[in-house]
Amino acid sequence: MHGQCKYLPYDASLSFFCDQNKKNHKLTLNFCTMIPIEDMFEDIIVKTMRGRGVTESELASRTGEPRDVLARLCRGEFCDEGALPKVARALNLDEEALTIAASKSWYPRMVTIEGLEIFNTPYRDMRVNAFLIWDPDSGEAACFDTGTDAGALTKRARQENLNVKQIFLTHTHNDHIADLNRLKSDLDNPEVFSNEAEPWPSTTLFKEGDAFSIGKLKVTTLTTSGHSPGGTTYYITGLQGPVAVVGDAIFAGSMGGGIVSFADAWENNLKKILSLPDETILCPGHGPMSSVGEEKKYNPFFANQFK
Length: 307
Ligand SMILES: [Fe+2]
Prior knowledge:
With 307 residues, the protein is an alpha/beta fold. It has 2 domains: 41-103, lambda repressor-like DNA-binding domains (434 Repressor (Amino-terminal Domain), Orthogonal Bundle), CATH 1.10.260.40; 116-306, Metallo-beta-lactamase, Chain A. It has helices spanning 25-29, 41-52, 56-63, 67-74, 83-90, 95-103, 151-159, 174-177, 180-186, 262-273, 292-298; strands at residues 10-11, 116-123, 126-134, 140-144, 163-168, 191-195, 204-206, 211-214, 217-223, 232-237, 243-247, 250-251, 254-255, 281-284, 290-291. Residues 1-32 have low confidence and may be disordered. Fe (ii) ion is lined by residues 171, 173, 227-228, 248, 256. The site of fe (ii) ion has 6 residues, from loops.
C-alpha cells in the first residue's frame, strides 16, 4: 500500500510526502497519515438493516442462518464466510464487494491533484474531512466544510498565497462546520454558502443546479439529500480531473447513514454521484478520498447495480 502512496492527506499536525525513491523513505513512512476506511463490513450490514427496516429475525429467516452467526457478523467477526454472501443477497448488497470489505483487502488508489488538498481533524472518537480547492493559475480558492480545527487549512492557504473567496457547506452536522466562525475570521470573511433545503444562519442560500466559479474552475451543485435534508455534492471541473466534494452522501466503500431517508440517500448516490465520470475523484466527509470508478466496483451498497 505504501508503495502506491503518492498523495498523503494533510493532517492538522503532520504533513509528509511518502516517496519510496527518497533515501529517508523509512523515516517518512512512519508519518504516513493514511485515513482509514470509514465503515467496516459490520457497519455496512447494520446501516443497511436500519435503513431498510430489516430486523435480526427477518434477516435470520431470509438467510436461513442461525441468529448467533448473524449477531457475530454484526459485531464484526468474520466468522462464517458462507453466511456473508447470504446476508449480502438478503440486504441487496453486492456479495463480492461485501466480502472484500470483510477481508479488508481494498483501499482506494491515492492520487495527487494540483489544487486539491484534504484536511483531516479529530471529532470525538472519529475524524472528519475538510477540503481546500484552488485554481493554480489565479490562486482563487474555496473551502469545503471546516472540520473541527481549520488551523492547518488556513495555514496552507497562506503558504500558497491563495485568495479564499468562498466557504461551501456540504451539510450542517456539527463535525463539518465546527470551526466555521474561526475559519471565516481567519480568512477575512469569505462568503459562506449552504443549500436552501438545509439553510444555515448568516449564509447565502443556493438551490440545486446553481453554479459558481473558483477562478477558472466551475462548481455545480447537486442536492444529495437523505443523510441530511439538503446534503450537497459540489462537482468541480477545471483541475487535472473532475472532483466531487460529497459530504456524508457516499464514503469510500460505504455511504452516510440515511438519517432523513435511507432510500433517498441511496438513490441520490446512485443517480447523481455514481453517474459522474469514472475518473471523478470523490472527496467525502469521512474516510479517504476515492473515485466514481472504484466505488462502482468496491462499494457494497452499489457494485451490484453496475454488473
Ligand atoms: Fe453528517
